[in-house]
UniProtKB/TrEMBL annotation:
Pfam families: MCR_D. Keywords: Methanogenesis. This is Methyl-coenzyme M reductase operon protein D. GO terms for biological process: methanogenesis.
Amino acid sequence: MTCPTESGCNCEPAGGETVQIEIVPQRILSPETSEKLLGRIYDCDGIIRVMVQGSRLPDKVGYGPGTGEAVSHPLKKSIEVEGQQVNMRVTLSRLLVEVDSDATADEIKKICDETFSFPFEFYKGVFFKKYSTVVDYAKMGPDPDERLLGMTDPKGKLDQIVFIEKEGKDSE
């Protein structure tokens, strides 16, 4: 594959490796902006996995005078991604995306430029673990799904991970 830019660089990752990107907006995203961003990212071809990170939005007050009371937070809403309803359990303040090529990463950067009206940071690097950790082994056993490596919280439950699979496009 040749470079789509005029610089003539070799944008294809060596050995068919994937490209991992980190998007860090300078603001915590609202559920509406999160839904718009994630929807546009999932519309791209070549998305392998996406992980949303941020501060936890609890269901109930854990301690203090209101212990056990339901938390009513304006950012705790349900969003739709790829036709699937997802309850936001965290604020979207950092997004990790693994894609199959630099061209897809550049497309995601363009999407961020169009979606955000404020500054954001965009990094390429290694952000997902490539090998099973002790926590992965304890949570998922000796043969874990490679898409889940490094995505489990040691204190979290596996049922809190949301899978959103892209539906195949019908070709007529």
